[in-house]
Write a structure and sequence with these properties.
Blueprint (H helix, E strand, L loop, with lengths): L3 E3 L2 E3 L9 E2 L10 E7 L4 E4 L5 E6 L3 E7 L3 E5 L2 E4 L11 E5 L8 E4 L5 E2 L3 E7 L5 E5 L10 E2 L3 E5 L5 E10 L9 E7 L7 E4 L13 E4 L7
Parallel strand pairs: 12-18
Antiparallel strand pairs: 1-2, 3-4, 4-7, 5-6, 5-9, 8-10, 11-13, 13-16, 14-15, 14-17, 17-18, 19-20
Amino acid sequence: MGEAWFDGLYFGTQPPPNPPVVDALPSPTNQTTITVTGTKDANTSILKPNGEVLVAVNSSTSWSASWPLVEGNNTIQVRSADQAGHVSGLSNAQVVVRDTQAPTTPSVSINSGATYTTSRNVTLSISSSGADSMMVSNSSDFSGASWESYSASKSWTLTSGDGTKTVYVKTKDAAGNVSGVGSDTIILDTTPPPASVTINGGATYTTSTSVNLSISGGDASQM
């Protein structure tokens, strides 16, 4: 009887090679193509289930091949084949989830959208769908900043000196996709306005308990 496979069983005088081993693959990944590696019997090739040759017959017991990915789940299946044409069973399927969708550009609010603050210590509200980590900075180039776990709320310290302050945030998902940059501004004003009060136009005396006050207060908006 000739050599052949029937229902996953091999019939013949020479056993087929062992199925190749596929190394663990990153999951999720945002790559459109990955390099699949593993081990195999010496003097065998690596084939796809449809017979496409990925690696030609060689004496090495290690192998690697490029594999294109599509959005969603990807099943990696390969066989070994020797020079006599004997083909192994399929290796164990390895699934890779490809993720190319970046998190949404974060929405950032300082102190719930306040226009002014008298303190450098503020609270950031951050929203970014799909985010796993985030980077926050007082600089648009994120110099000196590092990635940290994503949080919808974060205590933050503004740079010193009164004036308009901007806080920048970008996020990243588990696959490494990075979002656009979100930001918000607030005016830091830590200097009390100078104030002066004049009674009855600067009069020295008054005979009434009711007087007129003249008040000036620099940049004051309330009194």
